Amino acid sequence: MASRVLQRVATGLHWRRAGLQANVPAAIAARGFSGLKSLFVRKVDPRKDAHSHLLSKKEDNNLYKIQCMYYGIISSTFITLNQSALMLTMNFEVLPSIHADPEYPCELVGTWNTWYGEQDQAVHLWRYRGGYPALTEVMNKLRQNKGFMNYRDERGKMLLSRRNQLLLEFSFWNEPVPRPGPNIYELRARAIEIRQQNQEAVGGFFSQIGSLYQVHHLWAYKDLETRDKIRNAAWHREGWDEVVYYTVPLIQHMESRIMIPMKTSPL
């Protein structure tokens, strides 16, 4: 089924390209330069609101931050066991303490280590209730938090690199909430409502600051076998093949990583 859909996509793109090449000379001859211009200039209806407001949950006004941190060799030396133990202790103490403190308008949605995909990586997902003002308030308070500043200094000694993105959540996804476990989590680049019927959908987000035009979808499965069964079952549902047919041409890059929650992760 999947291969047939991809063949349809490739065939459709081929004929669209061929049709455009064949029709442009005739259009130029018949209508002149203005005809050529009309072929390539699409009239866009003016909007009175940002696209992000049309896609996100305006009533909730949540802002998310995803942090991807890579640990490994720094300055030609390996992280020692003592350093690893210290980082684990601080992860288990500092981050949950911020999550539980009502003075900070933020929540640790989940924190994971990668299992498959990019290795030696920790992924943290934070939620700021109140949008950008809440983010600014948290940042200012953290600068006065000696425990967090010490954690940040020690973390910096062990990091190869780190990357942050600020995200908004799609209006058609449910807000990420804790669920019974244990589970494995998958971070992917696309999804659709059809795939939410088995309750595996955790959250859907799109980037606002950082690497732009990126979509993140978070899924939860009991194990890899369950993941495989659910994904295969999607092809037997009406409409899924059309979803793939129309979305594949829009994707420039897609990656997936399987993540294991840390013991202190709310998810």
Keywords:
Alpha-Beta Plaits; 8 strands; about 40% helix; about 270 residues; alpha+beta; globular; single chain
Give an overview in words.
The chain has about 270 residues and is an alpha+beta fold. It has a single domain, classed as Alpha-Beta Plaits (2-Layer Sandwich), CATH 3.30.70. It contains seven helices and eight strands. The chain has helices spanning about 1-40, 50-55, 80-100, 130-140, 145-155, 225-235, 240-245, and strands spanning about 60-70, 105-115, 120-130, 160-170, 185-190, 200-210, 215-220, 255-260. It has an eight-stranded antiparallel barrel with strand order 1-3-2-8-5-7-6-4. Strand 2 (about 105-115) and strand 3 form a beta hairpin. The longest helix is centred in the first third of the chain and has 39 residues, at about 1-40. Mean pLDDT is about 75; it is low at about 10-40 and about 75. This is NIPSNAP domain-containing protein. One of its GO terms (cellular component) is mitochondrion. Belongs to the NipSnap family. It comes from Gambusia affinis (Western mosquitofish). InterPro entries: Dimeric_a/b-barrel, NIPSNAP, NipSnap_domain.
